[in-house]
Amino acid sequence: MNLIRCDSGFSEQILAIFNEAIVNSTALYDYKPRSLQSMGTWFENKQQGKFPVIGALGDRGEFLGFASYGTFRAWPAYKYSVEHSVYVGAQYRGRGVGKVLLQAIINASRDQEYHVLIGAIDSQNSASIRLHRGLGFEHAGTVRQVGFKFGRWLDVDFYQLILETPKHPAAD
């Protein structure tokens, strides 16, 4: 498996994974598949915030999944916290791809001197919860019945990982 930095040239591969998750799971609380046009804005926001989009390629060059992070909340005091996401193509789940991608996001967060990574995970997504716990994330709270999809109310668990960075935090 090879990790790469993705740009908008990977829009179709990322969109396919997003849309499969929207249609078939509660990993995303969207109702309708996204358009290819929406990916332009998505990549622009990542680029403006200097947020990486890390992709995983298989041995034959197939796109296995991706991970990224972005602004947790827009107020200045949250500047050292980011919310991340990890998505793996359905046919590649359970093979360690998510773990490699999440570790890459942790490393990138350290390099950019963020302090807290936050994952919002559907409470029924036991695979993602195990993945996060396995890399040191701790449960930070549950927001009950915050989403409604597939005819039922959904709870969201927040998991966080506190990093030793930044070396010199400042309120500016």
Written description of the protein model:
This protein has helices at about 10-25, 35-50, 95-110, 125-135; strands at about 1-5, 55, 65-70, 80-90, 115-120, 140-150, 150-160. The chain is of the alpha+beta class. The chain has a seven-stranded mixed sheet with strand order 1-2-3-4-5-7-6, with helices on both faces. A hairpin with a 2-residue loop joins strand 6 and strand 7 (about 150-160). The chain is globular, with a radius of gyration of 16 Å. The relative contact order is 0.15.
Brief write-up:
With 172 residues, this protein is α+β, with helices and mostly antiparallel strands. It has 4 helices and 7 strands, in the order E-H-H-E-E-E-H-E-H-E-E. It has one domain (2-162): Gcn5-related N-acetyltransferase (GNAT) (Aminopeptidase).
SSE arrangement:
Layout: E1 2-5, H1 11-24, H2 36-48, E2 53-57, E3 63-71, E4 81-88, H3 97-111, E5 116-122, H4 126-134, E6 138-149, E7 152-162
Parallel strand pairs: 4-5
Antiparallel strand pairs: 1-2, 2-3, 3-4, 5-7, 6-7
The largest sheet has its strands arranged as 1-2-3-4-5-7-6
- Shape category: globular
**Tally of extended strands?**
7
Would you identify the CATH architecture?
Answer: 3-Layer(aba) Sandwich
Q: pLDDT average, as an integer? A: 96
| Helix percentage range | 25-40%
Distance between the termini: 40 Å
The main β sheet shows up as: 7 strands, mixed
Q: Whole-number radius of gyration? A: 16 Å
| CATH superfamily label | Gcn5-related N-acetyltransferase (GNAT)
Low-confidence stretches: none
**CATH fold call:** Aminopeptidase
CATH class: Alpha Beta
H-E order? EHHEEEHEHEE
Supply the number of helical segments.
Answer: 4
- In terms of DSSP E residues, the strand content is 25-35%
